Amino acid sequence: MATIKHLLLDQGNTRCKAAIVKDGVFDIRPSSPDLRSILELYSLDEFSGVMISSTAHIPNDLEAALRKRENCILLDHSTPLPIGIDYDSPESLGPDRRANACGLHQLAPGKNTMAVDIGTCITYDLVVENRFVGGAIAPGLRLRNRAMNDYTSKLPIVSLEEKTPLLGKTTHSCLQSGIIHGMNAEIHGMIDQYRESYPPLEVYITGGDSKYFDMGLKNFIFADANLTLRGLHSILQFNGH
């Protein structure tokens, strides 16, 4: 039997993640700054399917070249998905959120599930009865850090530490506490509100900045660093690759 080999690429606001999937086994590869540089590392002809999600702008020449390839799918609002979309402006729904929703469906089909993706922004994406039904978007750690510096005359940009005391004793540590613990309280509060509306609800935490938060990983809160890539793979398979 021939080996089925897929390439998954997830271009975010700061990095492009990659995974190679051989017969269903994920091999997470080193990330690159952007889509073009990571594509230079691979020969796309060796893959039976290539799935690309990008929240950043893809240069026109690169996008045109990729869309000409029969084995390549650029995820957008017209891409068929294994779940339904119940969203008032489906054309505005980001590809990362589409992929996360499909990742939830792949992990827990038929269940009420939510992805909390902690990156440049925090996105909350809810899947109910195999349909994406909406969510929320909020600023992430670095946006909060930058905003306080941009909109005040004296507050500095601060370093972000995984172990930040709740009680700040200097302006620097007070900013750190407000950013980290304020965002932590927000995330837990959002989870609690969604659980009240959609019980029982399984929650999956993902994203590059999830490392800053102790979510407890209990009471149906799970960590999955590769949720978006899982979703991309499920979409690729759903489209016959």
Q: How much helical structure, as a percent, in the residues? A: 25-40%
The strands making up the biggest β-sheet line up spatially as 6-9-8-7-10-11
- What value does the Rg take, in angstroms? 19 Å
- DSSP summary, beta strand count: 11
**CATH fold call of the largest domain:** Nucleotidyltransferase, domain 5
Morphology call: globular
Please tell me the overall pLDDT.
94
The poorly predicted ranges are none
Query: What is the CA–CA distance across the termini?
Result: 16 Å
Q: List SSEs in N-to-C order.
A: EEEHEHEEHEEEHHEEH
Give the class-level CATH name of the largest domain.
Answer: Alpha Beta
Describe what this molecule looks like in 3D.
There is one protein chain. The chain is of the alpha/beta class. The protein has two domains: 1-74, Nucleotidyltransferase, domain 5; 77-241, Nucleotidyltransferase, domain 5. It has helices at 35-39, 60-67, 95-107, 141-150, 171-197, 227-238; strands at 5-11, 16-22, 25-32, 49-54, 72-74, 84-85, 113-118, 121-128, 131-139, 202-206, 221-223. A hairpin with a 2-residue loop joins strand 2 (16-22) and strand 3. It is globular, with a radius of gyration of 19 Å. The two termini are 16 Å apart. The model has no long low-confidence stretch (mean pLDDT 94).
